[in-house]
Design goal:
The chain is 24% helix and 34% strand. The chain is α+β, with helices and mostly antiparallel strands. It has one domain: RelE-like (YaeB-like fold, 2-Layer Sandwich), CATH 3.30.2310.20. The longest helix has 13 residues. The N and C termini lie far apart (28 Å). The model has no long low-confidence stretch (mean pLDDT 91). This is Type II toxin-antitoxin system RelE/ParE family toxin. Pfam families: ParE_toxin (PF05016). It comes from Duganella vulcania. Keywords: Toxin-antitoxin system.
Amino acid sequence: MNSIFWMPRAVRQLRKIAEQAKREAIYDAVQNLATWPMCNGDIKRLQGRQDYRLRIGDYRVIFEIDQRGNPIIVTISQVSKRNERTY
């Protein structure tokens, strides 16, 4: 099982989401990343960056994957509603 590490900024952004159902859906989707690379979800690598994005409805989770060690470390850096400044 891989490790999930939440940056403080991402935790604050997740807590600010008003709807509990959306917060839980995002949290569950992020927990699914612990099965990397066999996880499900709408995941894409961002162009020109080392980051990936996970799409959950109107929200985006930006994360990095450190595959150098065992376990693989997934670092969640941003959780935000999709707009022109999301990436």
